[in-house]
Specification:
This protein has about 375 residues and is of the alpha+beta class. The chain is about 40% helix and about 15% strand. The chain has helices spanning about 10, 25-35, 50-60, 75-85, 105-110, 180-195, 200-215, 225-230, 240-250, 280-290, 295-300, 310-315, 320-325, 330-335, 340-360, and strands at about 5, 40, 65-70, 95-100, 115, 135-150, 170, 235-240, 255-260, 265-275, 305, 340. Strands 4, 5, 6, 7, 8, 9, 10 and 11 form an eight-stranded mixed sheet that branches. Strand 2 (about 40), helix 3 and strand 3 form a beta-alpha-beta unit. The model is unreliable at about 1-20 (pLDDT under 50).
């Protein structure tokens, strides 16, 4: 895989050589947000990246009520909600979205998001933000397997293991026709099957899941922790921050482990943006300031997500040592590849449009 095809880990985690000075949100912004009195979010499960604590802390800090829409929705659901409610200032209109990287540029092109640069803007790597401030990365992770050791006797360590004879029942943490994690799961499997050839990974991924579906080991559900706990799927693939948090939540029942597949380590960046039609634009801006503050970024890390300002936080020694000690082996992340925006646009089209005809499994929530 050539260097120009993929953004490297170091490209998205540029070490901070300067101590940045950050201003608190202006009192004017805080007052304007409080006057609006509400923030409407969408597709933010409380288990995802520490969002439960972040939502609670934001309300406690600023006294702003949060209206949470469709917590289990995917990136496409968020974008559709913005489009569908552009003339609606009621409770179904999202103020902010948190979507997969590829949805940032497309949302800008569609004119459904507005620019805003947070006070910590300079410490966000250039490769992970729109130069005009329409969208910017908030955190990233790698795809990992959550394995129920009570029902799986031989845990898979590679994508290849999941299509061998005797492989366990397997599910993806999203619908490959529309959800970022599902699309990237197919891509990761395909990248492994294609020997790292990014140009062939999308079709190879579809063929891989066709093979799995034919074998009868693919479980067509939008997988969550409950599916592993119940044994519906012995193995599921989702972001490392989800799988690690879900494993913690089991408290040993069932016995489980998290494995990063060695033959296809794919990372995904998620981005934040403010709706162009936000009913509460000032509350949205204050939410962004909170998420990109040291407090907000460490909140993501507490939920096992690598915040986009990770290296800046480490360089300034503001990350608690006990939190750093909980993170997976950095060597696992050294293998990770970050698909470029052009690559994501290309394989998203192939996978989302080709899933039904090639694989034919109707993934349900």
């Amino acid at each position: 895989m050539t260097k120009h095809l993929m953004l490297s880990v170091s490209a998205l985690a540029i070490a901070a050589s300067t101590t940045f000075a950050y201003a608190e949100p202006s009192q004017e912004l805080i007052d304007a947000a409080k006057k609006e009195g509400q923030l409407t979010t969408i597709a933010l499960p409380h288990y995802w990246c520490g969002y439960g604590d972040l939502l609670t802390k934001f309300t406690a800090k600023y006294g702003i009520t949060i209206n949470e829409l469709n917590p289990e929705g995917g990136s496409a659901d968020e974008v559709q909600a913005v489009k569908a409610n552009k003339d609606n200032k009621g409770p179904q209109a999202p103020d902010v979205i948190d979507v997969g990287l590829g949805f940032g540029p497309s949302s800008k092109a569609d004119g459904i998001i507005q620019p805003y640069k947070v006070s910590t803007w300079d410490s966000i790597p250039a490769e992970a933000k729109d130069a005009d401030g329409y969208w910017y990365g908030d955190y990233y992770g790698v795809l990992a397997f959550l394995v129920n050791d009570d029902v799986v006797s031989n845990a898979p360590t590679t994508w290849a293991d999941l299509v061998k004879d005797g492989a366990p029942q397997f599910a993806l943490g999203g619908d490959p026709r529309k959800d970022n994690v599902g699309i990237l799961g197919v891509y990761a499997a395909g990248l492994a099957a294609a020997g790292g050839d990014a140009s062939k990974a999308a079709q190879a991924g579809l063929d891989y899941f066709k093979q799995m579906n034919t074998k009868g080991t693919f479980v067509p559900v939008n997988a969550r922790a409950k599916d592993v706990a119940a044994g519906t799927a012995g193995v599921i693939a989702s972001w490392d921050y989800n799988t690690l948090a879900w494993k913690d939540g089991f408290n040993g029942n069932p016995k489980a482990q998290v494995i990063v597949p060695s033959d296809g380590v794919v990372a995904g960046v998620y981005v934040q943006a403010i709706s162009a039609y936000a009913p509460h634009p000032n509350a949205a801006k204050l939410w962004m300031e909170f998420l990109y503050s040291d407090e907000g970024q460490i909140g993501f890390l507490s939920g096992y997500c690598h915040p986009i300002r990770f290296n800046d936080l480490v360089a300034r020694k503001v990350v608690p040592a006990d939190l750093l000690a909980k993170l997976p082996d950095p060597a696992l992340y050294a293998k990770a590849v970050f698909p470029t925006l052009d690559q994501q646009a290309a394989f998203k089209k192939v996978i989302s449009e080709g899933w039904d005809t090639t694989v034919g499994a109707d993934v349900v929530k």
